[in-house]
Amino acid sequence: MRRNAPALAKITSPELPDVLQRTRLFRRLDRGGKSGITWIVGPPGAGKTTLAASYARRRRLRSLWYQIDAGDADPATFIHYLGIAARDAAPRRRKPLPHLTPEYRKGLDIFTRRFFQELYARLKPPFLIVLDNYQELPEDSKMHALIRDGLEQLPRGARAIVISRSEPPPAFARLMTYNALEVLGWEELKLTPRESEGLARHRGHLRRPKIAAGRLYEITQGWAAGLVLMLERTKGDNPPPLPPDAAPPGVLFDYFAGEIFVKTDAPTQEVLMLSAFLPKMTAGMVARLSGERRAGRILEELTRNNYFILKHAQAEPVYQYHPLFREFLLTRARSSFSPARLMRIYQSAAAALEETGHTEDAAGLLRQADDWEGIARLILENAPTMVAQGRTQTLMEWLGALPSGYLEKSPWLLYWSGICRFPFNPPEGRRFFERAFALFRETRDRTGTLLAWSGVVESIVHGYAELTLLDHWIAVMDELLADDPTFPSLEIEERTTQAMSMALLFRQLHHPRIHDWVVRAEALTRKSANLNLRIFTMAYLALYHMWTGDHVKAGLTVQNLQRAASDQELTPLLRIVRHVMEAIYQVHATGGAADLAAVNAGIETSKATGVTIWNAVLLEQGASIALSAGDLARAEELIKATAAALDESRRVDVCIYHYCNAWLALLRRDIAGAQSHMESSLRLALEAGSVTLEERGHVLMAQILHERGEEQQAREQLAQARRITERTRNRVSEFMCLLTEAQFALDAGREADVRAPLARAMALGRRQGYTNIFGWRPDVMARLCAAALEQGTEADYVRQLILKRNLAPAADAADVERWPWAVKIYALGRFAVMKDERPMSFGAKAQRKPLVLLKALIAFGGSDVAQEQLTDVLWPAADGDAASRALVTTLHRLRRLLNCKEAIELKDGRLTLNPRYAWVDSNAFERLCDRAGTAEREGRADLARAWLARAADLYRGHFLGKDDLPWAVPRRERLRGRFLRLFEDLGRDREAAGDWRKAVDCYQEALEIDDLAELFYQRLMLAYQRLGRRADAHHIYQRCCKTLSATLGIKPSPQTEAVYKSLI
What are the start and end residues of each TPR repeat (predicted)? Predict the structure, then answer.
């Protein structure tokens, strides 16, 4: 809307002539309520506006004057004009106050408080705000609460006056309860006899003012307008006769105004009646409307005589009749002019108002004239500006005034009807866009066709409930571009590209031309001047890369978005979009700690500005971040907050809410609860048509059913997820499917079936840098990572994943040497310690005692070792207290030496090597032997052999074999016994398989470890015999004899001799 004189008169205080100074009421206004708010209430013509204006002038208060009219029932209109008033009051502040655009509507109370706080900061106390004609607002208007909230922000030293014909509405009750608002009512507002005399003297009409004023006061009872009229009619000192029914002020006013009106000349009467059709006017507007060149003099004379007209001082003065006088003139006009003449007057007045940009009043006159063509033209000329200002409620009222048949014939009117509705009711907005599209296409309006198509798509996406509808509209766009691949303008191309990118993202990631659209969208983000469009397009591109599994490109796109959205002057909506994308990216690409910085920043911006439309999405992403990090308590809080922020009509948001609940329940082992929520989530995903959520949901449902032991149904769910993934080529979903397949095989003990899917998953994870998935379960991932390390799959990537996600090894993974343990201790055949995969060196003599403590702890099993057991062997000569102190000191030194306090726990007088941080080869060896025994008892010979082979790889020598430590002997001998049985079992297994060469290798390896074990000499001789290598068998016998003699001074046992003799 253009800036113009009549529009500004709405926010300009009236210019008063020399009026009666009502000092009695000035003092009353000085008091005001506790918050400086006064409500002036009285009938029309009571002098309310004059009182407020003269008070501001007398007290020399800088004032912001706002004249409320019917158009202010639309909060966005009120905010728009109040923003202009603030700009004029503080011209040095270049940043405009925000418009009340749709994103603020759900948080209107927050927006209001913020808006008024910024407004008051620009005015700086002392100042006065006047809201005139408050009665123009409907009784049920939301504006009452908005204005109340705004006035509550009034700073100390500032004042506000509300002028109304009605008492304060119920919304202001709380202000009155706390005496924050005082009412100056009709009884106080009435002129006193002395004030009436003063007014009579001031106007100078009476020879004896005191006597005449007293008589007039008895008649008018303090009503200022009545007194002015009667003074105009009074001859000498005698009041004029009263009409018999003159009690009501309106009737009295009409009577006396009529008496005066009929005494003016006919041209003046016509000027007055015609000008009354203009709510606010300049002399030029009245002259054009009436054709009377004297219009300016007539208006100025009325002003000079203070005759029910206000003048607003501007470059071209603006005049405004008192409501009573204007209504009187309009009544006269309607009775004086023919219907045809009235129709022309309405149209001419509307044109005058429209020329100066006062479109609200112009629309009102055109509606009275039933000039639908004029209203339609007004709508089409002003719709873009009004939508940008958030004034869609006003625009919808204008559109609603048109006959339905008229609306249905105009595609552009249908289009703007859709624009007004879709932020608040996307399905309704979509229906208008669809009708507009059909008409545009029929009339071959390319611009309108593409804009209406974009509107349809945006309505479907923002509705977040019926995404399946996008399939049809994607096909329509394919048809449109097949007929004509060009765009009418860059702006239309940008809008269409963003909409098509959205449609493909949410429904057709498999579309054959999706890559072309992505490239086009990326180019748009680099060159478009429309920041709003650029940021939203970047957001959709980032989602595209995340949902297709390209986290590198997603990260780069999010970085570009952050740079574009770094300007502090950015609208709250765009700042929140930035934080939403940061949070979504963190869920997809980072994992690790529950870093909720982006979520918190988005929520804080929402709280501060009232832009709440993204709250549910932010909170859901926060819950996903917390769930991924294992912070279940925080996740539960965020899920509960999500429930409060949900819009049930947006199925996608509700679907994600149930998904997060299912994920949380699964982590807490509430399998029944997880299944219930996941069933709801999947149902909503299918109803909404969200392909990405559907494939993600099938994977988690498969895992839930697997936990319930329903393997067939679990496999069916996983198969459904795979079918979708094959179509969408979503690498993240493929990763999830492969991991789930490997998990099912691992849980079933089908080791052979684990290898292929796990290898493919980890290779994909390495290539794409995956560190998190939806439905992340640390215990499951730890087992899969351990299995991958055992089979030698992508070891570097897997170790990095373990470290990044701080995965704790599962109980059955404690023997996995390749796991990236914080501390690794080797005690079989050597004593060595590794910290973070690097060997530690211990050269200082001062480190000896801590290392002896570590060896003793391992020798006694490494778990739940009594403090006394250690002190008895390490400090045998010390008394109990001294030994205990020595142990505590040495333990402190050992922890510091290892640089890992968590590796050794001391609890209730017992020490334990924490299996989450510390790995010991001797303990792992025993666990592997135990697992082999269990597998053999279960009849799983192949698995038993695999465990035995791994145990054999660990046994590189006897336990602390180079240390002469008596207390280490029991553990050494027990381990040696297990070693002997292990290698004998391995060798005999290979003998049974007829693989004598491998049997030879096994026995040779055993002898390298323990060359005094005669059993292996015996089995080796027999193996050589089966291979026909008698000389080698003889050589082995000779080696046995020499070794036993040199080491122990004994001969071979009878069993060894018997085997040897059987060979010769």
Answer: 980-1013
Strand partners, 826: 832
Torsion of CA 845, 847, 848, 850, to 10 degrees: 160
Residue 4 CA neighbour count, 13 Å, CB half: 16
Omega of the bond leading into 126 within 30 degrees of 0 (cis): yes
Closest to 128 (Cα-Cα) out of 48, 36, 12, 50:
36
pLDDT at 964: 86
Amino acid at 562: Q
- The identity of residue 656, as a single letter, is I
φ and ψ of 14, to 5 deg: -70, 150
Cα pseudo-dihedral 588, 590, 595, 601, rounded to 10: -60
Nearest to 118 by CA among 792, 610, 612, 768: 610
pLDDT at 246: 44
Residues of the chain with pLDDT under 70: 1-7, 33, 93-94, 202-215, 219, 232-260, 306, 568, 591-593, 814, 843-846
Work out whether the CA dihedral 261, 264, 266, 270 comes out positive or negative. Answer: negative
Three-state DSSP class for residue 906: strand
Measured in whole angstroms, the distance separating CA 268 from the mean position of its chain's CA atoms is 63
Q: Please answer whether residues 394 and 77 qualify as being in contact, where contact means their C-beta atoms are separated by less than 8 angstroms.
A: yes
Supply the pLDDT for residue 314.
73
Q: Name the token pair of 471.
A: 């399939």
The token duo for 56 is 């501001």
Return the number of other C-beta atoms located less than 10 Å from residue 2's C-beta.
11
Q: Where do the domains of the chain lie, and which CATH numbers do they carry? A: 5-189 (3.40.50.300), 195-350 (1.10.10), 543-645 (no CATH), 649-729 (1.25.40.10), 738-813 (no CATH), 821-968 (1.10.10.10)
Task: Look at strands 181-184 and 37-41 and give their pairing.
Answer: parallel
Tokens of 92: 């040095």
| Full 3-state SS string of 177-222 | HCCCEEEECHHHHCCCHHHHHHHHHHHCCCCCHHHHHHHHHHHHCC
Q: Is residue 1022 within 8 Å of 980, Cβ to Cβ?
A: no
Q: What distance in Å separates the CA atoms of residue 640 and residue 633, rounded to the nearest whole number? A: 11
Residue-wise pLDDT for 275-321, tens only, equals 999 998 899 999 999 988 888 898 888 887 767 788 887 778 888 88
C-alpha distances (whole Å) from 895 to each of 48, 898, 907, 1056 are: 83, 5, 15, 49
Q: Judge contact between 772 and 782, C-beta under 8 A.
A: no
> CA-CA-CA-CA torsion for 473, 475, 480, 486, nearest 10 degrees?
90
3-state secondary structure 824-876: EEECECCCEEEECCEECCCCCHHHHHHHHHHHHHHHCCCCCEEHHHHHHHHCC
Q: Which amino acid is at 1014?
A: E
Please check whether residue 602 is in contact with residue 576, taking contact to mean a CB–CB distance below 8 angstroms: yes
Q: And the tokens for 81?
A: 């004009």
Q: Which long-range contacts (CB under 8 A, 24 or more apart) does 734-741 make?
A: 734/549, 734/764, 735/549, 735/761, 735/764, 735/765, 735/768, 735/770, 735/773, 736/696, 736/699, 736/773, 736/774, 736/775, 737/699, 738/764, 739/773, 739/780, 739/781, 739/784, 740/699, 740/702, 740/703, 740/706
Classify the phi-psi angles of 591: left when phi > 0, otherwise alpha if psi is within -120 to 50, otherwise beta: left
pLDDT at 255: 55
What's the predicted TM-score (pTM) here?
0.85
Exposed e or buried b per residue across 985-1018, where buried means at least 16 C-beta atoms within 10 angstroms of its C-beta: bbbebbbeeeebebbbebbebbbebbeebebbbb
d(CA 442, CA 415): 15
> Judging by beta carbons within 10 Å of its beta carbon (0-12, 13-18, 19+), is residue 817 exposed, middle or buried?
middle
